[in-house]
Amino acid sequence: xxxxxxxxxxxxxxxxxxxxxxxxxxxxxxxxxxxxxxxxxxxxxxxxxxxxxxxxxxxxxxxxxxxxxxxxxxxxxxxxxxxxxxxxxxxxxxxxxxxxxxxxxxxxxxxxxxxxxxxxxxxxxx
Length: 126
Description:
Helix content is about 65%, strand content about 0%. It is mainly alpha-helical. The longest helix is centred in the N-terminal third of the chain and has 18 residues, at about 10-30. InterPro entries: Globin-like_sf (IPR009050), Globin/Proto (IPR012292), Hemoglobin_trunc (IPR001486). It holds the Pfam family Bac_globin.
């Protein structure tokens, strides 16, 4: 029996989209995330699509984001955003909250959060 990918465990495309939508809704509407929101363009729709595509591939599902951007690196894309310890922490917090509110399996959520903590730490520029 083969092990399910994280993509399958999160609920496939629907599960990924739910987490991404909740993440951006939190960022857009919760004052707590204002510093994180201020770093992003006014129209979040393209980012919602891009993050869902990225996470799908990153979690072991369709690699739409990676196929459309051969050689692209998520870390490099964020290099000039001036990510601070505060905004990295807000990003991780919003993702953790989005996964919890979308009822992502706790074990899977912990696995993903560990990777997000590492990614966010690598993107900080302070």
